[in-house]
Amino acid sequence: MTTAQPSLDLSIIVPVYNEELNLPTLVERIYTATRPLGKSVEIILIDDGSSDDSVRILHELCAEVPELTAVILSRNYGQSAAMSAGFHHAQGHIIISMDGDLQNDPADIPLLLAKLDEGYDVVCGWRKDRQDGYANRVLPSKIANWLIGKMTNVRLHDYGCSLKAYRYEFVKHLTLYGELHRFIPVLVSLDGAKITEIPVNHSPRLLGESKYGIGRTPRVILDLILMFYFQRFATRPLHFFGKSGLLLGLAGGGIELYLAFVKLGLGQDIGDRPLLILGFMLMVSGMLLIAIGILAELIVRVYHESSDTDTYRVREHITPQIIK
Ligand code: UDP
Ligand code: MG
User: Fold this and answer.
1) From CA 28, how far away is CA 23, in angstroms rounded?
2) CA–CA separation, 149 vs 161, rounded Å?
3) What's the CA dihedral at 69, 75, 76, 77 to 10 degrees?
């Protein structure tokens, strides 16, 4: 798939949901942090269906700050969809995402850019000194980070920090389903992105309310299972479902063959043996898993072939050099 070339140096994207009290300071801080860089910069604030005065304030701010654009979503879709909208609208070679509640510090942006310049594709912020409640936020996130690292082999201290810098190619077409914004490092690693992290500042939320709590734990675990599957089998689902299907089917077949021998060879009754049902269940489950694998293969093909989405990503294209 070919990609339209970005026309600016830097895009800052910020999802915003009921952050009316934070917006003016946020824009001012981003502006102050990025102006001395001497780069062409755009700030994109994505309003995710706010019910407070955020949209009116965005109108006012856009009239004052030429670098500022606002994308107003038609309802509250969630932070992932708002970030997707930001990626899709961004025109910078480098895209930076951050929260709109002043917990991330725009003064860290130059540090992220310097790290990208060392040859990375994605630089993640690490809230080393995180300013949120310990029991309900910091501890669960420590456990989640450890688990995600173990299961995905993408080793980071802090997946959840929104402050991150990305090269355009790796996120421009990223559509974040559900709540997958926490797994962006894993998703870009699927495309071979070189990822690193640096410690960043973190402040307590002073104005407005956090939109999350401990209730997201089961959703994170399910998303992690999805990532685990994507990393290994996204383009070959039959290998995933088929392997367990074959194992179960063979075990069930073996049991039924043994029972057939008991019945026909030894002449014993098998009708009241639990093994009969177990073998039958295993055979049916095995067949179902293989059928699911074949369906998933069809879906993967329909997805890649109908949406012009490649199953690979090109990092560089070296063409013959004509020496004059
Ligand atoms: N946010 C959003 N849509 C939502 C929930 C949150 O755009 O449905 C934004 C929110 O305005 C903030 C960022 O996502 O800019 C992170 O949210 P929050 O600060 O509540 O998360 P926390 O820092 O508590 O994890
Ligand atoms: Mg926050």
Assistant:
1) 9
2) 15
3) -90
**17 CA from centroid of ligand 1 (Å):** 6
Give which of 72, 39, 42 is closest to 57, Cα–Cα: 72
Predicted confidence (pLDDT) at residue 1 exceeds the cutoff of 60: no
**Ligand 1 atom having least distance to the Cα of 19:** 11
Residues above pLDDT 90, as percent of the chain? 82
Sheet holding 68-72, edge to edge: 68-72, 41-47, 8-16, 92-97, 164-167, 122-126, 195-199
Tokens 């000194």 correspond to 129
pLDDT (tens digit per residue) in 61-117 = 999 999 999 999 999 999 999 999 999 999 999 999 999 999 999 999 999 999 999
323: β partners: none
Report the SS3 class of residue 147: helix
Using a 6 Å CB cutoff, which residues line ligand 1?
15-17, 19, 48, 76, 78-79, 82, 99-101, 103, 210-212
Strand partners, 166: 95, 122
Phi/psi at 179 (nearest 5 deg)?
-125, 40
Class for the domain spanning 8-233: alpha beta
* DSSP, res 136: I
Q: Give 176-221 pLDDT, tens digit per residue.
A: 999 999 999 999 999 999 999 999 999 999 999 888 877 888 899 9
The pairing of strands 41-47 and 68-72 is parallel
Ligand 1 pocket test: pick from 51, 101, 203 the residue with the most ligand atoms within 8 Å of its Cβ.
Answer: 101
Domain boundaries, the chain: 8-233, 237-306
Residue 158's SS3 state is: coil
Q: Model's pTM, two decimal places?
A: 0.88
SS3 sequence of 60-100 = HHHHHCCCEEEEECCCCCCHHHHHHHHHHHCCEEEEEECCC
